[in-house]
Specification:
5-stranded mixed β-sheet, 15 helices, binds alpha-D-glucopyranuronic acid
Protein backbone atom coordinates (compact mmCIF):
# COMPACT_ATOMS: atom_id res chain seq x y z
CA UNK A 1 0.00 0.00 0.00
CA UNK A 2 2.97 2.26 -0.30
CA UNK A 3 1.97 3.31 -3.81
CA UNK A 4 -0.98 5.49 -4.76
CA UNK A 5 -4.23 3.61 -5.18
CA UNK A 6 -4.85 5.18 -8.57
CA UNK A 7 -1.92 3.74 -10.52
CA UNK A 8 -2.61 3.12 -14.23
CA UNK A 9 -2.28 -0.63 -13.56
CA UNK A 10 -5.01 -0.55 -10.93
CA UNK A 11 -7.30 1.53 -13.11
CA UNK A 12 -6.74 -0.91 -15.95
CA UNK A 13 -7.51 -3.90 -13.72
CA UNK A 14 -10.63 -2.23 -12.38
CA UNK A 15 -11.82 -1.48 -15.93
CA UNK A 16 -11.14 -5.09 -16.89
CA UNK A 17 -13.05 -6.49 -13.91
CA UNK A 18 -16.00 -4.21 -14.60
CA UNK A 19 -16.02 -5.10 -18.29
CA UNK A 20 -15.94 -8.79 -17.42
CA UNK A 21 -18.84 -8.25 -15.04
CA UNK A 22 -20.82 -6.50 -17.75
CA UNK A 23 -20.14 -9.24 -20.28
CA UNK A 24 -20.68 -11.93 -17.64
CA UNK A 25 -19.07 -14.46 -19.95
CA UNK A 26 -15.44 -13.67 -19.39
CA UNK A 27 -14.73 -16.84 -17.42
CA UNK A 28 -13.03 -19.80 -19.00
CA UNK A 29 -15.60 -21.91 -17.23
CA UNK A 30 -18.51 -19.96 -18.63
CA UNK A 31 -21.23 -21.71 -16.69
CA UNK A 32 -19.70 -20.75 -13.33
CA UNK A 33 -20.62 -17.55 -11.52
CA UNK A 34 -17.53 -15.54 -10.60
CA UNK A 35 -17.80 -14.05 -7.11
CA UNK A 36 -15.53 -11.01 -6.73
CA UNK A 37 -14.35 -9.78 -3.34
CA UNK A 38 -12.21 -6.67 -2.91
CA UNK A 39 -10.21 -5.43 0.07
CA UNK A 40 -7.44 -2.95 0.81
CA UNK A 41 -4.87 -5.03 2.71
CA UNK A 42 -1.75 -6.88 1.54
CA UNK A 43 -1.73 -10.58 0.72
CA UNK A 44 0.00 -11.44 4.02
CA UNK A 45 -2.58 -9.60 6.13
CA UNK A 46 -5.07 -11.64 8.26
CA UNK A 47 -7.92 -10.24 6.14
CA UNK A 48 -6.49 -11.76 2.98
CA UNK A 49 -5.64 -15.04 4.72
CA UNK A 50 -9.27 -15.27 5.91
CA UNK A 51 -10.73 -14.45 2.51
CA UNK A 52 -8.47 -17.03 0.91
CA UNK A 53 -9.86 -19.61 3.36
CA UNK A 54 -13.37 -18.48 2.30
CA UNK A 55 -12.45 -18.83 -1.36
CA UNK A 56 -11.10 -22.37 -0.82
CA UNK A 57 -14.15 -23.32 1.23
CA UNK A 58 -16.65 -22.12 -1.39
CA UNK A 59 -14.64 -23.65 -4.20
CA UNK A 60 -14.62 -26.95 -2.33
CA UNK A 61 -18.31 -26.93 -1.43
CA UNK A 62 -19.87 -25.16 -4.40
CA UNK A 63 -17.04 -25.20 -6.93
CA UNK A 64 -19.25 -26.57 -9.69
CA UNK A 65 -21.25 -23.35 -9.62
CA UNK A 66 -19.14 -20.53 -8.12
CA UNK A 67 -15.55 -19.35 -8.49
CA UNK A 68 -14.40 -16.90 -5.81
CA UNK A 69 -11.78 -14.31 -6.75
CA UNK A 70 -10.14 -12.15 -4.09
CA UNK A 71 -8.68 -8.76 -5.09
CA UNK A 72 -6.31 -7.35 -2.39
CA UNK A 73 -4.36 -4.08 -1.99
CA UNK A 74 -6.98 -1.63 -3.29
CA UNK A 75 -6.71 -3.24 -6.75
CA UNK A 76 -10.39 -2.40 -7.18
CA UNK A 77 -10.04 1.07 -5.66
CA UNK A 78 -10.30 2.57 -2.19
CA UNK A 79 -12.76 1.17 0.34
CA UNK A 80 -15.27 3.87 -0.56
CA UNK A 81 -14.97 2.92 -4.25
CA UNK A 82 -15.38 -0.77 -3.39
CA UNK A 83 -18.47 -0.16 -1.27
CA UNK A 84 -20.03 1.67 -4.21
CA UNK A 85 -19.09 -1.20 -6.55
CA UNK A 86 -20.69 -3.65 -4.11
CA UNK A 87 -23.75 -1.45 -3.86
CA UNK A 88 -24.36 -1.58 -7.59
CA UNK A 89 -23.38 -5.24 -7.96
CA UNK A 90 -20.31 -4.52 -10.10
CA UNK A 91 -18.52 -6.67 -7.52
CA UNK A 92 -20.17 -9.01 -5.01
CA UNK A 93 -18.39 -8.40 -1.70
CA UNK A 94 -15.81 -6.15 -0.13
CA UNK A 95 -14.29 -5.44 3.24
CA UNK A 96 -14.95 -1.93 4.49
CA UNK A 97 -13.96 -0.34 7.72
CA UNK A 98 -17.02 0.38 9.87
CA UNK A 99 -15.83 4.01 9.81
CA UNK A 100 -16.68 4.64 6.19
CA UNK A 101 -20.01 2.80 6.38
CA UNK A 102 -21.56 5.54 8.48
CA UNK A 103 -21.97 7.63 5.35
CA UNK A 104 -24.23 4.84 4.01
CA UNK A 105 -26.20 4.36 7.24
CA UNK A 106 -26.11 6.50 10.38
CA UNK A 107 -26.44 3.38 12.54
CA UNK A 108 -22.79 2.58 11.85
CA UNK A 109 -21.80 5.67 13.83
CA UNK A 110 -22.22 3.57 16.96
CA UNK A 111 -19.16 1.35 16.42
CA UNK A 112 -17.06 4.40 15.49
CA UNK A 113 -17.51 6.02 18.89
CA UNK A 114 -14.22 6.50 20.73
CA UNK A 115 -13.97 4.49 23.93
CA UNK A 116 -17.25 2.70 23.19
CA UNK A 117 -15.88 -0.64 24.39
CA UNK A 118 -14.26 -0.92 27.82
CA UNK A 119 -12.03 -3.83 26.82
CA UNK A 120 -11.18 -6.17 23.98
CA UNK A 121 -13.40 -8.79 25.63
CA UNK A 122 -16.36 -6.37 25.74
CA UNK A 123 -15.71 -5.52 22.08
CA UNK A 124 -15.58 -9.15 20.94
CA UNK A 125 -18.64 -10.20 22.96
CA UNK A 126 -20.63 -7.23 21.63
CA UNK A 127 -19.66 -7.88 18.03
CA UNK A 128 -20.53 -11.58 18.42
CA UNK A 129 -23.97 -10.72 19.78
CA UNK A 130 -26.50 -10.65 16.96
CA UNK A 131 -28.92 -8.54 19.02
CA UNK A 132 -26.26 -5.83 18.85
CA UNK A 133 -24.98 -6.23 15.31
CA UNK A 134 -28.16 -7.16 13.43
CA UNK A 135 -29.87 -3.73 13.54
CA UNK A 136 -26.64 -2.19 12.28
CA UNK A 137 -25.72 -4.86 9.73
CA UNK A 138 -29.14 -4.84 8.09
CA UNK A 139 -29.47 -1.06 8.03
CA UNK A 140 -28.02 -0.70 4.53
CA UNK A 141 -30.44 -3.12 2.89
CA UNK A 142 -32.14 -0.30 1.01
CA UNK A 143 -28.75 0.93 -0.14
CA UNK A 144 -28.23 -2.42 -1.88
CA UNK A 145 -25.85 -4.24 0.44
CA UNK A 146 -25.82 -6.09 3.77
CA UNK A 147 -23.08 -6.82 6.27
CA UNK A 148 -22.45 -10.54 6.61
CA UNK A 149 -19.72 -10.68 9.25
CA UNK A 150 -17.13 -8.58 11.07
CA UNK A 151 -13.35 -8.74 11.29
CA UNK A 152 -11.08 -7.62 14.10
CA UNK A 153 -9.05 -4.51 13.38
CA UNK A 154 -7.60 -4.18 16.87
CA UNK A 155 -7.37 -0.87 18.65
CA UNK A 156 -6.61 2.45 17.00
CA UNK A 157 -3.86 4.59 18.47
CA UNK A 158 -2.04 7.76 17.43
CA UNK A 159 1.36 7.61 15.78
CA UNK A 160 3.46 10.51 14.68
CA UNK A 161 6.58 11.33 12.71
CA UNK A 162 8.42 13.39 15.28
CA UNK A 163 6.29 14.46 18.23
CA UNK A 164 5.31 11.85 20.84
CA UNK A 165 1.63 12.05 21.86
CA UNK A 166 1.35 11.76 25.60
CA UNK A 167 -1.83 13.76 26.15
CA UNK A 168 -4.50 15.39 23.95
CA UNK A 169 -2.60 18.68 24.31
CA UNK A 170 0.23 17.17 22.21
CA UNK A 171 -2.15 16.83 19.27
CA UNK A 172 -2.69 20.58 19.06
CA UNK A 173 -1.52 21.95 15.73
CA UNK A 174 -0.82 18.49 14.29
CA UNK A 175 -2.40 17.31 11.07
CA UNK A 176 -3.57 13.76 11.71
CA UNK A 177 -4.98 11.50 9.03
CA UNK A 178 -8.35 10.01 9.92
CA UNK A 179 -10.71 7.77 7.98
CA UNK A 180 -13.37 9.51 5.91
CA UNK A 181 -16.05 9.59 8.58
CA UNK A 182 -17.78 12.55 10.24
CA UNK A 183 -17.46 10.83 13.65
CA UNK A 184 -13.69 10.58 13.28
CA UNK A 185 -13.42 14.20 12.20
CA UNK A 186 -15.42 15.27 15.24
CA UNK A 187 -13.30 13.05 17.49
CA UNK A 188 -10.15 14.82 16.29
CA UNK A 189 -11.75 18.20 16.83
CA UNK A 190 -12.60 17.25 20.42
CA UNK A 191 -9.07 16.00 20.99
CA UNK A 192 -7.61 19.24 19.66
CA UNK A 193 -5.80 17.95 16.55
CA UNK A 194 -6.47 18.85 12.95
CA UNK A 195 -8.29 16.02 11.11
CA UNK A 196 -7.08 15.22 7.61
CA UNK A 197 -9.45 12.64 6.11
CA UNK A 198 -8.05 10.49 3.30
CA UNK A 199 -8.16 6.92 1.96
CA UNK A 200 -5.83 4.36 3.50
CA UNK A 201 -3.73 3.93 0.35
CA UNK A 202 -2.68 7.57 0.36
CA UNK A 203 -1.42 7.72 3.96
CA UNK A 204 2.15 6.48 3.45
CA UNK A 205 2.94 9.10 0.81
CA UNK A 206 1.24 11.83 2.85
CA UNK A 207 3.39 10.95 5.88
CA UNK A 208 6.55 10.74 3.86
CA UNK A 209 5.99 14.09 2.18
CA UNK A 210 5.00 15.84 5.46
CA UNK A 211 1.46 16.56 4.24
CA UNK A 212 0.39 15.10 7.58
CA UNK A 213 2.21 14.84 10.92
CA UNK A 214 0.75 11.52 11.92
CA UNK A 215 -2.14 9.10 11.71
CA UNK A 216 -4.06 6.68 13.90
CA UNK A 217 -4.46 2.98 13.37
CA UNK A 218 -3.62 -0.48 14.69
CA UNK A 219 -0.03 -1.77 14.82
CA UNK A 220 -0.30 -3.54 11.45
CA UNK A 221 -0.27 -0.16 9.70
CA UNK A 222 3.25 0.41 11.02
CA UNK A 223 4.65 -2.72 9.44
CA UNK A 224 2.34 -3.97 6.69
CA UNK A 225 1.83 -0.49 5.29
CA UNK A 226 5.28 0.84 6.15
CA UNK A 227 4.02 3.74 8.30
CA UNK A 228 6.55 2.78 10.99
CA UNK A 229 9.36 3.56 8.52
CA UNK A 230 8.32 7.21 8.86
CA UNK A 231 6.55 7.45 12.23
CA UNK A 232 8.70 6.69 15.26
CA UNK A 233 6.20 7.23 18.11
CA UNK A 234 3.15 5.03 18.68
CA UNK A 235 0.97 6.02 21.67
CA UNK A 236 -1.45 3.53 23.18
CA UNK A 237 -4.28 5.97 23.91
CA UNK A 238 -6.57 3.20 22.50
CA UNK A 239 -9.24 5.61 21.34
CA UNK A 240 -11.20 3.22 19.14
CA UNK A 241 -11.90 -0.42 18.34
CA UNK A 242 -13.39 -0.06 14.88
CA UNK A 243 -14.31 -3.38 13.28
CA UNK A 244 -13.91 -4.16 9.61
CA UNK A 245 -17.09 -5.38 7.97
CA UNK A 246 -17.59 -7.86 5.13
CA UNK A 247 -20.47 -6.57 3.05
CA UNK A 248 -22.27 -8.33 0.20
CA UNK A 249 -24.49 -7.21 -2.65
CA UNK A 250 -28.13 -8.03 -1.86
CA UNK A 251 -29.08 -9.05 -5.38
CA UNK A 252 -26.24 -11.56 -5.50
CA UNK A 253 -27.01 -13.00 -2.06
CA UNK A 254 -30.71 -13.28 -2.86
CA UNK A 255 -29.98 -14.92 -6.22
CA UNK A 256 -28.62 -17.98 -4.39
CA UNK A 257 -30.77 -20.92 -3.33
CA UNK A 258 -31.38 -21.28 0.44
CA UNK A 259 -28.92 -24.22 0.49
CA UNK A 260 -26.22 -22.17 -1.23
CA UNK A 261 -26.87 -19.25 1.09
CA UNK A 262 -26.37 -21.60 4.05
CA UNK A 263 -22.96 -22.65 2.68
CA UNK A 264 -21.98 -18.99 2.17
CA UNK A 265 -23.07 -18.25 5.74
CA UNK A 266 -20.79 -21.01 6.97
CA UNK A 267 -18.10 -19.35 4.86
CA UNK A 268 -18.72 -15.96 6.53
CA UNK A 269 -18.25 -17.61 9.95
CA UNK A 270 -15.02 -19.10 8.68
CA UNK A 271 -13.80 -15.64 7.62
CA UNK A 272 -14.46 -14.34 11.13
CA UNK A 273 -12.81 -17.34 12.81
CA UNK A 274 -9.69 -17.46 10.68
CA UNK A 275 -9.18 -13.70 10.70
CA UNK A 276 -9.43 -13.43 14.49
CA UNK A 277 -6.93 -16.23 15.03
CA UNK A 278 -4.52 -14.77 12.48
CA UNK A 279 -5.01 -11.28 13.92
CA UNK A 280 -3.55 -12.19 17.32
CA UNK A 281 -0.39 -13.60 15.71
CA UNK A 282 -0.09 -10.74 13.23
CA UNK A 283 -0.32 -7.98 15.85
CA UNK A 284 2.30 -9.67 18.01
CA UNK A 285 4.65 -9.95 15.02
CA UNK A 286 3.93 -6.34 14.00
CA UNK A 287 4.84 -5.03 17.46
CA UNK A 288 8.08 -6.97 17.42
CA UNK A 289 9.03 -5.77 13.96
CA UNK A 290 8.06 -2.17 14.67
CA UNK A 291 10.11 -2.05 17.89
CA UNK A 292 13.05 -4.09 16.61
CA UNK A 293 13.55 -3.22 12.94
CA UNK A 294 11.72 0.05 12.51
CA UNK A 295 12.78 1.45 15.90
CA UNK A 296 9.28 2.64 16.73
CA UNK A 297 8.92 3.71 20.35
CA UNK A 298 5.73 2.52 22.07
CA UNK A 299 4.25 4.95 24.58
CA UNK A 300 1.57 4.30 27.20
CA UNK A 301 -0.07 7.64 28.04
CA UNK A 302 -2.73 8.09 30.71
CA UNK A 303 -5.96 7.42 28.80
CA UNK A 304 -8.23 9.42 31.13
CA UNK A 305 -7.78 12.85 29.44
CA UNK A 306 -8.41 11.29 26.01
CA UNK A 307 -11.56 9.55 27.29
CA UNK A 308 -12.81 12.75 28.87
CA UNK A 309 -12.19 14.86 25.76
CA UNK A 310 -14.12 12.42 23.56
CA UNK A 311 -17.10 11.82 25.86
CA UNK A 312 -19.40 14.55 24.35
CA UNK A 313 -19.40 12.53 21.14
CA UNK A 314 -21.37 9.70 22.79
CA UNK A 315 -24.09 12.15 23.79
CA UNK A 316 -24.29 13.89 20.41
CA UNK A 317 -24.39 10.67 18.36
CA UNK A 318 -27.10 9.16 20.60
CA UNK A 319 -29.13 12.36 20.52
CA UNK A 320 -29.04 12.52 16.73
CA UNK A 321 -30.01 8.84 16.36
CA UNK A 322 -32.04 7.67 19.40
CA UNK A 323 -32.78 4.36 17.64
CA UNK A 324 -29.31 3.11 18.55
CA UNK A 325 -29.67 3.91 22.28
CA UNK A 326 -30.91 0.38 23.20
CA UNK A 327 -27.94 -1.16 21.36
CA UNK A 328 -25.58 1.24 23.12
CA UNK A 329 -27.12 0.15 26.44
CA UNK A 330 -26.56 -3.53 25.64
CA UNK A 331 -22.89 -2.76 24.97
CA UNK A 332 -22.70 -1.16 28.43
CA UNK A 333 -23.76 -4.50 29.90
CA UNK A 334 -20.71 -6.15 28.32
CA UNK A 335 -18.59 -3.22 29.49
CA UNK A 336 -19.75 -3.86 33.07
CA UNK A 337 -18.96 -7.53 32.71
CA UNK A 338 -15.52 -6.99 31.08
CA UNK A 339 -14.38 -3.62 32.38
CA UNK A 340 -10.62 -3.66 32.01
CA UNK A 341 -9.00 -2.08 28.99
CA UNK A 342 -5.94 -4.24 28.49
CA UNK A 343 -2.91 -2.73 26.81
CA UNK A 344 -1.67 -5.83 25.07
CA UNK A 345 -4.69 -6.03 22.74
CA UNK A 346 -4.17 -9.72 22.36
CA UNK A 347 -7.12 -11.41 23.93
C1 LIG B 1 -7.36 -0.55 9.25
C2 LIG B 1 -8.61 -1.26 8.81
C3 LIG B 1 -8.93 -0.93 7.37
C4 LIG B 1 -8.98 0.56 7.15
C5 LIG B 1 -7.72 1.22 7.65
C6 LIG B 1 -7.80 2.75 7.55
O1 LIG B 1 -6.27 -1.05 8.55
O2 LIG B 1 -8.42 -2.65 8.96
O3 LIG B 1 -10.17 -1.48 7.02
O4 LIG B 1 -9.16 0.87 5.80
O5 LIG B 1 -7.49 0.85 9.00
O6 LIG B 1 -7.36 3.41 8.46
O7 LIG B 1 -8.33 3.25 6.56
Amino acid sequence: MKSSNHSPYKLFLLALVLTCTALSGCSAAQHKRIVRIGHNQSTSHPTHVALTAFKDFINERLGDKYVVEVYPSELLGSQTDMVQLTQTGAIDYCIASNAILETFSKNYELFNLPYLFASTEAYHHSMDDKKITEPIFSSTRKAGFTAVTWLDAGTRNFYTVSKPIESPADLKGLKIRVQQSPTNIEMMRLLGGSATPMGFGDVYTALQSNIIDGAENNEMALTDNGHGDVCKYYSYDMHQMVPDILIGNNMFIESMSPEEQAVFEEGYRLVNDVQRREWIKAVKAARQKAAGQQKVQFLYPDQAPFVQACSPLHRSVLLSNPAIQPIYDQIQEYNNQYPTLSEDNES
